[in-house]
Design brief:
single chain; about 210 residues; mainly beta; 8-stranded antiparallel barrel; two-stranded antiparallel ribbon; 1 helix
């Protein structure tokens, strides 16, 4: 069994209904999982070891600006004019909470040792789960356009490298891409944004084995 924690080095989220610049970010990703002792595939570079993970990730971002592809007419309805094709300063926050069940494959390389960090073990994989997304008081031209939330199906892919400091502690650095399928956020005039949510995260973490 293993317990772990994951913190962002870089994190950026994207809603396809509007492209959001989100520089102020926080992410926390505690997880628990199980590493199998058997080899599932013997490759030319070494054995491949499966490892499962159940991860809960919370993200929070401050919204700086919004680029509109098509506002669907709600800009005119709010009395601020058409926003189609416009890039506007914005305020508000986007928060998300995802629960993912992941399968990672550790690649056992021979004689791959990093001084002070331990044996280097590359890994890759992905997972399925769900995500809660909240757009909190998103405003353009001082007019609130979205204050809503939704739950959607999500999937992710990732790759990274772990450094086995000892038998029970591993340091990790990885990249993870997560996508949510079409969460709907209701506008202030009652229409919906049919969106896709993407998250790109480069993070560092710890895994504890017991």
């Amino acid at each position: 069994m293993a317990l772990g924690d994951h913190f962002p080095i870089f994190d950026r989220d994207h809603l396809t209904a509007f492209i959001a610049a989100l520089p102020e970010a926080f992410e926390h990703n505690p997880g628990t999982g199980y590493r199998f002792s058997g080899t599932i595939l013997q490759g030319r570079v070494g054995p491949f070891y499966p490892r499962t993970e159940l991860g809960l990730t919370w993200r929070q971002h401050t919204l700086d600006d919004v680029d509109f592809d098509d506002d669907g007419g709600f800009g005119d309805a709010l009395g601020i004019g058409s926003l189609t094709g416009a890039s506007e300063s914005a305020s508000g926050e986007i928060e998300s909470l995802s629960l993912m069940y992941n399968l990672w494959i550790d690649i056992g390389l021979q004689n791959c040792f990093v001084p002070f960090l331990g044996a280097a073990v590359p890994y890759f994989g992905g997972g399925l789960g769900g995500i809660y997304i909240s757009g909190d008081e998103i405003k353009v031209r001082n007019v609130e356009i979205v204050d809503d939330d939704d739950v959607a199906f999500a999937y992710q892919l990732g790759l990274g490298v772990g450094f086995e400091v000892n038998d029970w502690l591993t340091l990790t650095v990885d990249y993870r891409w997560l996508r949510a399928a079409e969460p709907e956020l209701e506008t202030e005039i009652g229409g919906d944004f049919d969106t896709e949510f993407d998250s790109h995260s480069l993070g560092a973490g710890l895994r504890y084995f017991f």
